[in-house]
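Render this sequence as a predicted structure.
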Amino acid sequence: MLNIVSILAALIILGVVVTIHEFGHFIVGKLSGIAVTEFAVGMGPKLISWKGKETVYSIRALPLGGFCAFVGEDEDNPDPRAMNNQPVWKRFLTVFAGPFMNFLLAFIMAVVLIASSAIPNPYSVVTLPVLYSVDENMPAGRAGLQAGDTVLMVDGEEITPNDAGVEVLRKRISEVGDGNALTLTIDRNGEQLEVSLAPEFNEEEGRVLIGIVFSAQYEEYDANLITAVPEAFELLGKTVVNTVAFLKDMVSGLLRGMGVQEGSVSGVVGIVSSVSTDMQMSFSAGFATGVYSILFWLLNISLSLGIMNLLPIPALDGGRLVFLAVEGIRRKPLNREREAIVHLIGFAILILLMIVVTVSDVRGLLK
């Protein structure tokens, strides 16, 4: 039962994020004097619909998003309230409003989560002299070190519980060299032990190693509303930069014929699977944890949708903004039919990519 509820919750989260996006287009378009023929929540067959003064409002069967249909969006229309009869700046703001609403939703979620100490700072990591893993075939494993051990001293020199302490330990291992012993004083469940071992030269790494991986933890944000606002801006800014860098590397790899690593990109199936799995775990841990999980996914999916929609790809908001920018620079309209064909081709390519990603998601689930 929990599994079904978590899947429905994941679909609703995805639907809310897309509906917020479309509402941005809708409200700014309305304020700009552009006529809207239909505003729909969900996709597929209509479940409920009613007509306002000029707009049909509908709720559809599939909670996977929604849409906002403007008069004269992709063709010439004599109606003075048609989208393509409006000044460029009005159309630009209307198109940009969708991604903006996604960024706004992500920002609000980030402020709430940071102020409530529900998430750590993912861009502030501290490495600790605590063993995360130990290679049984390396000197550390053979000497009896275990995951969870905390290194207190190396050859009598104290190790501070931070990055500086880890660097002292690494430097000492390097200085001792291949085959020479050193002594580690460790804490294991409150008991202090001394362990002697000799680092070994690793040809693949080109340096001496003892076979351990240190633990790392994220630093916590300051838990108050005042500091949460700038920290939320910083979090979203760094995430956008990292996402753009990832997309740039992915495109560069595709151009070099390297392909896309399986699991690095997810479609609707992959997102719903990840969100529903996390929902199950979170609500099993408690109601508050489940609520934080919902806010966390609203933040991430909304931010991702905002970034993706601003990419300069035909049929996406970013592609339409490019055409509007060109029209503004030329100071005369572009050929509507040709622009519509370009967007149609872009849409077809996006559908094809969605199918490929969905197949990859399903293969991943089957594995």
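Summary. Residues 117 and 356 are 38 Å apart (CA to CA). The chain is about 55% helix and 20% strand.
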